[in-house]
Design brief:
Distance between the termini: 37 Å
Strand content: 15-25%
Helix content: 55-70%
Number of strands: 3
Structural class: alpha+beta
Shape: elongated
CATH topology: Ribosomal Protein L30, Chain: A
Number of domains: 1
Number of helices: 4
Strand order of the largest sheet: 2-1-3
Radius of gyration: 18 Å
CATH architecture: 2-Layer Sandwich
């Protein structure tokens, strides 16, 4: 492989990696039998800064539908929020936004 081809391959890889990070990611919170509804509202307000009305709406989606899409963000921020949700004991996952 020539040096020029190596640089081109490296540039393409870096570009693909940056594009993967820029793709929006959905944070989904799942229902569980452990956490109180008021606690879920508190956590959503604490992590995302949501007002009581929005946090309650999302909590009710989790409770009634089994899950709720609580945020769509770039991957790095989404991973941070996912970690925070887990540290508060909530079940949550990341999914690529479509």
């Amino acid at each position: 492989m020539t040096a020029e081809a190596d640089v081109q391959t490296q540039t393409e890889t870096q570009t693909e990696t940056r594009m993967d990070l820029d793709i929006p990611w959905n944070i989904v919170v799942w229902d569980d039998p452990v956490n109180l509804m008021s606690y879920v509202v508190y956590v959503l307000q604490k992590i995302f800064g949501y007002n009581t009305s929005l946090a309650t709406k999302l909590m009710l989606e989790v409770h009634n539908q089994g899950k709720s899409l609580v945020a769509t963000e770039e991957r790095e921020q989404a991973e941070l929020h996912l970690h925070q949700l887990h540290s508060y004991g909530l079940q949550a996952t990341l999914r690529r936004a479509e």
